[in-house]
C-alpha cells in the first residue's frame, strides 16, 4: 500500500543556473525545408485571402519594374506582387506553411531569406500559428528590406522555441491596406529543432535520491499526459524519474516561482497510474512537498511538476526540485483533522495553538473558498445557547462553526473578519466543531483561542427608541450588533425578510437634496431597513441587503428635506444561520462633493529607482484586502477594504489630517501606488483621497504613516482641496524635522525611513527584535519585511541598521 502526506514547510532558496536539467542535446532535426523550386504551391501549404482576390505567386517575377532583380537568389521563390495588380482592390493575402511537429525539441530555429519593398502603409509580417492562436514574429513596414528589387534581400533568424506545438504553422502575410503598392518575397524557409526537453514522459530527467535540487525553467514547456487529480488547469509540465530506495519512502520537494503542483506515477510512459498528487499551496505562494511511503524498492517512478493556472500565482518561472530519502516534513498540528479536534471549555483560559504546517481536512467554508491550512476544535454549548469565541490570532483567519459530527458536518456560522465571533441560538449542551483556517493561500500563524459565556451587554442603540444620530459628512461611526436582541418594528410578516436577528438603530435627518448614501462597512451579513414615522408607528420605506464591506454604499432618494428617518441594521438569515459583528457606519449627501486631498510619498525600503516603488507584495497576492491599521499602535477602526488589489499597488498607508492645534480632524487608510501617489482604497485610478468630514478651503497638516517606516508630517499646512499634489519626496523642507526625517536616495528624491517595525516612530533594538523573530520567513506580510519583497532576509536588516536610533517627529511617535 502506498501512503502519502502533503506538507508545505518554509524553505529559503537561492536560484541557481536555469535549465540545468531541462535540455538534452541530440542531433539537429529538419522540421520544415522549402525553397519553392517547383515554382508552384508546395504540398501541404495553403493560401488565404481576407481582402481582395490576388494570391501569392511562385517562381520569378515577370514585372518589368523588377527587372535586374526578379528573384531573391536567382531561383524560384514565393512572392506577392502588389505593383503588377495596378489599381485593383486592396489586398490581404496569406501564405500558410505545411504543419510541422516541433513539440519534441528544446530549441527551434527558423531561417529565412526575405525581401519587402515598402510603400505607404503596406506591411509584410511573419506569424506562428498553433491551432487558433497566432503570434507575430515580426512585422515589416515603412522601410525596405533591404532594397528595391527582389535580389536585395535580408537573411533573418528567429527563435520559435516559445511556440512549440504538434501542429505548428508559419504564416506569411502581405497587406497593402489602400490599393496598389509594391511587393514581398520569401525563399529558403528552413525550420530546425535541436535537443529535447523534459515536458513529455519519455524525456523525463533522472533525479538522484538525496542529491542537490535540480534547477529548471518551465519557459517553452507544454503540458502532456492526463490531468492531475489535484489541479485546476495545467498549462505546462516537466517530467522527472527516480528509483525508490530500499526504505520505500521519499519526500519530493519543489521551490518554484510559479504556481506548481506535483503528480507521481507508477508504470511506464503510456501506461501510467497516478499514485499521488500534491497542490497544498494552490495559489503558488510557498513550496510544495509530498511524502510517499510504501514504494517498491528499486522500482522507477515518474514525477510531473506542472504549472496550475488559477486566479492567483504565475504560470511560468523557475523551479528547483529534489527528492530525499525518508520523511523530511515537519509534523502537522495534532488537531490538523476534525477527528482530532481539541476540546475547549467555555470560560477557561485561552489555549495556545497554531495552524503552521497544517494541511486541509473537511469542506470549504461557504464564505471563503480560498481558505487553507485548517485546524479543529470542539466546544459544548452553554445552557443559554450563547457564547463568544476569540481566536486572539496573529494572522488573518476564517472561523467556521459546525454542528453534527466529523462525518456529517453542517455549517452553522462563518466569518472572515476579525478574531471575535458571537454565537447565539446554539442547542444547549450540544457539541459544536470549530474550524480555524488561514484566510487565503499560505496564511498561517499562532493563536490563543478561548470561548466564553455570552453575557454581552446589549449595544446602547439596541432599541428603536434609543437610536444613534448620524451626522451627514462625518467620519464613520464604529458599532456592533453583538449582544443585541431583535425588535419587531412592524408586523413580522410585513418585514422584507421573515427572519432577522440582532438589530441596532440609527437616525438621520434628510438634507435639502432628499438623498442620503449609507455605508455600513460591516463584517457580517446584514439587512438595512429605512423607516419613516416614530417607534411604534413606523412605515417601512426600503429594505435591502446591506452594502458590501468594500462597496460605495447604498443611496436612498425621495426623502423629505428636514425629516427624521430611522435605519435598522439587523443580521441576515443565511444558509449557515446568523452572523454578528462590527460595522463602521456613515451617512453622506451624495450631491455634496467630498474634499480631495492629494499627496505623494516614497518608501525607502520599496524604492526601485526612477521615482518608482516595487509592487512585490501585490505581485504575490500578499497585500491584504482590508486595511491593516486596526491593531496597536494605530487602533484605527475604519473598515477600508478592496475587492481586488490592482497591479500598481505597493501597500497600505495610514493618513491623518491635523488642524492648527495638531488635533486630528480626519483620518483614513489609503493605498500607496507604484509612482508614490496616495489614493482611496478601491479607486486605483483616482486622483488623491476624498474626505467628507473636513471643510473645503480650510488648512490642514498632512501626516502619513506606514507600518514599517517612520511617518512624516507636512512642514506646512495645506489648503484643501489642493490642486497641486503635496510632494514629500522633493526636499527635506517638505516635512517637519527636515532632513533627519528622510532618506536622500541616490538618484535624487527623498523617502521616509525604513526599519520602524513596531511603528512607534523610533527605530530601536525593539525593531531589531521583531526582525530577528521573523527572520528567514518567506511569502509573508510581515512588518519586519522592510523592503516589501515578501521575505525577511539580511536585506531587511541592511535597511534597519543604518537607521537605528532615528527618531520621528513627536507628532508621529506613539
Care to describe what's here?
The protein has 814 residues and is mostly beta strands. It has five domains: 129 residues, Jelly Rolls (Sandwich); 172 residues, Jelly Rolls (Sandwich), CATH 2.60.120; 116 residues, Jelly Rolls (Sandwich); 121 residues, Jelly Rolls (Sandwich); 209 residues, Immunoglobulin-like (Sandwich), CATH 2.60.40.4130. Helix content is 3%, strand content 39%. It is built from three helices and 55 strands. The strands form 14 sheets. Strands 3, 5, 6, 8, 11 and 13 form a six-stranded antiparallel β-sheet that branches. A hairpin with a 2-residue loop joins strand 44 and strand 45. The longest helix is centred in the C-terminal third of the chain and has 10 residues. It starts with a strand and ends in an 11-residue tail after the last helix.
